[in-house]
Amino acid sequence: MPLNQINWTAPRLLVPPVAIVLGLVYLIAALIAGLPYPGFAALATIAAALYLVTQVLNIYRFIDRRIGAIFGHAHAWPIHTKSYPIYKFVDIYRGAQLYAAQHPRSIEIRSEHAGPLTMILNGYVRAIAERTIRAPTMVPRKISYGEEQYFPADSFWLVRPAGAGPRGIIRVRMAVRIRQVQIEVAAPETAGASAIVDAVTDLASQHSIYRNRMIRVVFQPEVRDSYGDDESYDPMDLMFYKELAIDDDDIILDDMVRGVIERTVVDFHERRDALIRLGLPGKRGVLFYGPPGTGKTYTCKYLAHRLKTATTIVATGHALLHMKAICAIAKMLQPALVLLEDVDLVFADREVNAYNTVLGEFIDQLDGFGETDHVTFILTTNAIERIEAAIKDRPGRVSQCIYFGPPNAALRRRYLQSLLRPYDASAVQLDRVVGQTDGVSQAFLKELVFRAVQIASADHHDGGSLAVTDSHVETALAEMTSGGGRAGKRIVGFHVE
Asked: Measured between alpha carbons, how far is 378 from 309 in angstroms, rounded to an integer?
């Protein structure tokens, strides 16, 4: 903001006016009427003027003086403070920026100070270094998978509405030591401070850097766990996933399975508002189950790409122990697609479950969504028999279970054709390979082609398209199933009679 927006008539600038006026009057009278000691009068006037200049310069030097130049005595204003997890820093900072931008006369001051806003406004900070306006630490934060920006660790906005709206002081700072983001708002009235806090947090949510992205929930020792106003201290952060452009032609599924997914997930998401008006709840749960390597995770990534207007939240492993925090993020960033992988590790049958408290919390969270919440859960497991019945057998929590099994012959042919498309595979007898791979998983077929390509590349010298032959495939198949008899053939889902 331009510095000329400062209100030069603010009370703190009027400290020496009497000395200045008297000095000027005396100097003028001395010069006109020949009064004694005009030099002393001039010196007094110059001293008073220098004091005024010093006061003005202090506005640029000290944070409390800069605030005082705009708002006068703001020390009596009520101050509202809220703390958020560290990953919310960019959202809150941008929310404050957007709010201030709605009032063009506002001023942003980037300056780093250790004390809270109340100490600054009330003059409790006596040390010159703590009052001095100084460039803040610039903190790097990811704003997408491949993009990082630096943000000031401490910023103030002096909000001066031209019309309606409360005046106020907004401060957003990152408390690095305790890994929190704090917003402090001072305003003449309590209602005004509260209104500004609410407006900033609403803007932060609406324009979140995570909205409509694919993100992963990660728990680490120094990071808080919750989103929004939850003041618990479990460690938590969000990381961006590299989003894959998986098109319809890239996903090879049984026609019936594809149709069920299309209706249960895609159509439901795209027409959710209309379905809610018809009385359907906006939350839906789906369970993908089947052997490892049969495409459950890949299908989840395909759906994340397909549902472009949803925020995809991925949680697996240790993150599954914190479903309250995950569901809070889903509510905040809805419409949301929540992918919970390998849920049998945590949500097993309560008779053998070491995490019964977590299981109960997850069930409570599933039941706690409102009728109009736009959230879809997709759970994956390799062992559906281990899942607690209250989840898998309870429509309304999980509305559809979809089996992902080893591909049949037709799907294996399509999958091999897709994998071999970048190479010259005219010499590969696909029918033979399809017959030799009965009962294998998609993951096995992918590894088979990768291995055959590696073998073929050792014989490739002419610089043209890489040729993959039956011999290369046979060698790869023999290597993958060797070294363990029947057990070796079960690698990655190979079928053994």
From this structure: 17
Q: Backbone dihedral region of 29: left (phi > 0), alpha (psi from -120 to 50 degrees) or beta?
A: alpha
**Region label for 165, one of left (φ > 0), alpha (ψ between -120 and 50) or beta (otherwise):** left
Q: In angstroms, how far apart are the furthest CA atoms of the chain?
A: 122
Cβ contact 71:169 at 8 Å: yes
Buried b / exposed e along 348-378 (16+ C-beta atoms within 10 A): bbeeebebeebbebbbebbeebeeebbbbbb
Tokens for 295, please give them. 């495409």
Which tokens belong to 207? Answer: 């324009």
Q: What's the predicted TM-score (pTM) here?
A: 0.78
Tokens 């850097």 sit at which residue? 209
3-state DSSP assignment of residue 168:
strand
| Nearest C-alpha neighbor of 4 from the set 107, 101, 87 | 107
Instruction: State the Cα–Cα distance between residues 309 and 312, nearest whole angstrom.
Output: 9
Helix (H) or strand (E) holding 286: strand 283-289
Q: How many residues can be counted in the chain?
A: 497
At 103-140, the pLDDT tens digits run: 989 999 999 998 899 888 887 766 667 788 888 999 99
Angle CA(129)–CA(59)–CA(107) in degrees, nearest 5? 105
* Whole-angstrom distance, CA of residue 226 vs CA of residue 221: 14
For 94, the enclosing helix (H) or strand (E) is helix 89-101
Tokens of 310: 């949803």
Q: What is the pLDDT of residues 350-393, one digit of tens each?
A: 777 777 788 888 888 888 888 899 999 999 999 888 888 888 88
Q: What angle do CA 457, 462, 463 make, to 5 degrees?
A: 75
Q: Please tell me the distance from the alpha carbon of residue 107 to that of residue 330, in angstroms, as a whole number.
A: 34
Closest residue by Cα to residue 172 from 149, 196, 145: 196
